[in-house]
Amino acid sequence: TLADSLVERKDREMMEELLVAALSSAQARVAETRMDAIQTMTSGLDFPGMDEAKSQMLKDMFSDESSTKEDKT
User: Fold this and answer.
1) Among 34, 40, 25, CA closest to 54
2) In the chain, how long is the greatest CA-to-CA distance?
3) 0.70 surpassed by pTM
């Protein structure tokens, strides 16, 4: 949450929602960058199950995000 001294009361909820959205967007970009790096490092190499592992990793990352949000409410 934001300190009262930083914002007027009427703007607090909107700023908190924008902050959550910005952090979620940043996490998605990090995940995408990470997956691009993994793809670059493994290009040309045939690892059985790599595509499934990458998909599962992304799924796990975003399911952790939603459960964290739900836990805080």
Assistant:
1) 34
2) 56
3) no
